């Protein structure tokens, strides 16, 4: 391994004047969009790659998205060859970026986990890598007071899993998590409504990076143990949130991240307070700005035309 | 007030911001390019560093902070004042957008809209790159160069101070300006501390007609490569950067990014003003609030880029 340091960085938390004004309560942003590779995925994946046992000759990741980018970057930084297996719907620019990181990219049909397993020894499966919010140190360092709630997007639930772990370590196990999803990628919401670990028949949301049909087992478990408020927004709301956020905070995120931001832009925090699901007297609300690479101004325009 | 106002917090008002490699810019430049993401500071720009520090260490007995700036310094001052529990008055020129005035008022500041600004303060607050600790913590190896935008030169002053503290006093600074706000370049060319007759660049936050005395002094002591780009190049850089790195910055910041997008780093290496074997190049992404997608479109139309 070339380096002992973490592959991710400690990212800033800052107040959002614009969102605080809209929500009528203090809103902070955890800027994981400023991570190397542009999303929070480098946390869990970087850690996993770094701590992988010696003897692994190659990292393999099945992901055409941010996990794939994080894996390719981690591999390059650690001096380990990487193979990223991506579905054939992956944009060319993403494939090119992964190759620029030095990874071998195999464009497969529908991504098959078994194909990956044949090749190598270290295997990272999207959605299962636990997101680690760097234990409680970063959480408590960032947030001087106990937060009123943490707002985040849910795809497979890795981010939620890590955040709850961090909250527990900080002795903040009663801090509710507002778990945002888009309609058509609402695997957590469906499971919580059904009371069982269901699978969505299809992913129909434009927020493809939330597109995990079945939320992780750990997330299912935590939904029964931790105060989680599961909310779903439309693609329109997620995309509008992206559009407003780039003007409000000068950061361009994917619709997947827009889902979390819609908690403010679509008045969900306000409604939850009105419904007494969140207290009126609410501590600082922290939104995890998970980031994401699969967006550009042109893509945003297209999304707006498609969904709005 | 009889009693001095108590400072609410002993903590810094700015944060330690990430440095990350830019794959896109590295590919373009053909050499390692890193970004210091000061766009992720509270208030969206690096200004909170110097201004936050200044406000925090202000002597007791000050009952109010006053700042003359319709830009990022004003925002940083308003925010600092609110965090420290001190009333603030921000004096802004009449060309300041309404949305900026509103934001300052949202921070609790009294805003006075004045005519042409009398510059007592702007440009003099030394930017502190948090001594050498943040610099050395961020950059494990000695950088090949630091690239930054120059308005009044406060950022440059602080970076050079940080480099000296890290014993990296030979690391060149590539000082980027836009034509029409090129006060440093004009002074270096003239060999004296000249004043530009007017600011004609769209990068208004670089619009200081005379660079700071400290910057003038440093231009004679430190390896500084002064480069000027057009407004078009600065704005094109802003546009490309939002797609490459998902961050929307002002044209003032675009000037620094144009060092890569306009091939200036490459040219400097070809001209041997920067070594062929170059350590990591760090671009300070200074950020800035006075930009939106609509403003970017308007600028493109205005500059004939569309």
TrEMBL record, chain A:
It comes from the Eukaryota. The keyword Metal-binding does not apply. It catalyses: L-serine = pyruvate + NH4(+). SUPFAM superfamilies: Tryptophan synthase beta subunit-like PLP-dependent enzymes (SSF53686). The lineage of its organism: Eukaryota, Metazoa, Chordata, Craniata, Vertebrata. It comes from Neolamprologus brichardi. The keyword Protein biosynthesis does not apply. Its EC number is 4.3.1.17. GO terms for biological process: isoleucine biosynthetic process; L-serine catabolic process; L-threonine catabolic process. It is an enzyme of class 4 (lyase). InterPro entries: Ser/Thr_Dehydratase, Ser/Thr_deHydtase_PyrdxlP-BS, TrpB-like_PALP, TrpB-like_PALP_sf. This is L-serine ammonia-lyase. Residues 9-291 form the Tryptophan synthase beta chain-like PALP domain. Its cofactor is pyridoxal 5'-phosphate. Signal peptide: none annotated. Keywords: Lyase, Pyridoxal phosphate. GO terms for molecular function: L-serine ammonia-lyase activity; pyridoxal phosphate binding; threonine deaminase activity. Transmembrane segments: none annotated.
From TrEMBL, chain B:
Keywords: Lyase, Pyridoxal phosphate. Residues 15-115, 134-287 form the Tryptophan synthase beta chain-like PALP domain. PROSITE patterns: DEHYDRATASE_SER_THR. GO terms for biological process: isoleucine biosynthetic process; L-serine catabolic process; L-threonine catabolic process. It holds the Pfam family PALP. The keyword Lyase applies. It catalyses: L-serine = pyruvate + NH4(+). This is L-serine ammonia-lyase. Its EC number is 4.3.1.17. Coiled coil: none annotated. InterPro entries: Ser/Thr_Dehydratase, Ser/Thr_deHydtase_PyrdxlP-BS, TrpB-like_PALP, TrpB-like_PALP_sf. GO terms for molecular function: L-serine ammonia-lyase activity; pyridoxal phosphate binding; threonine deaminase activity. Its cofactor is pyridoxal 5'-phosphate. It is an enzyme of class 4 (lyase). It comes from Neolamprologus brichardi. The keyword Lyase applies.
């Amino acid at each position: 391994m070339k380096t002992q340091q973490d592959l991710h960085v400690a990212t800033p938390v800052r107040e959002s004047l614009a969102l605080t004004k809209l929500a009528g309560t203090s809103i902070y942003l955890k800027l994981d969009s400023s991570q190397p590779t542009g999303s929070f995925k480098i946390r869990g994946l970087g850690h996993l790659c770094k701590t992988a046992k010696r003897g692994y000759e190659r990292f393999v990741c099945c992901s055409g998205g941010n996990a794939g980018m994080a894996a390719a970057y981690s591999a390059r930084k650690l001096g380990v060859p990487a193979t990223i297996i991506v579905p054939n719907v992956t944009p060319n620019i993403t494939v090119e970026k992964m190759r620029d990181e030095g990874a071998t990219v195999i464009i497969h049909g529908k991504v098959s986990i078994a194909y990956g397993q044949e090749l190598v020894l270290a295997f990272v499966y999207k959605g299962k890598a636990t997101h680690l919010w760097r234990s409680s140190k970063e959480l408590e360092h960032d947030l001087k007071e106990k937060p009123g709630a943490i707002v985040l997007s849910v795809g497979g639930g890795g981010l939620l899993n890590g955040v709850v772990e961090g909250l527990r370590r900080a002795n903040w196990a009663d801090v509710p998590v507002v778990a945002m999803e888009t309609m058509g990628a609402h695997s957590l919401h469906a499971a919580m409504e059904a009371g069982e670990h269901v699978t969505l028949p299809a992913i129909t949301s434009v927020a493809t990076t939330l597109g995990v049909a079945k939320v992780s087992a750990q997330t299912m478990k935590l939904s029964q143990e931790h105060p989680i408020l599961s909310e779903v927004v439309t693609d329109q709301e997620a995309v509008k949130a992206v559009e407003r956020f780039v003007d409000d905070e000068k950061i361009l995120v994917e619709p997947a991240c827009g889902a979390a931001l819609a908690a403010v832009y679509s008045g969900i925090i306000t409604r939850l307070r009105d419904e007494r699901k969140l207290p009126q007297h609410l501590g600082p609300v922290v939104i995890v700005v998970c980031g994401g690479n699969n967006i550009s101004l042109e893509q945003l325009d297209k999304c707006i035309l498609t969904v709005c």
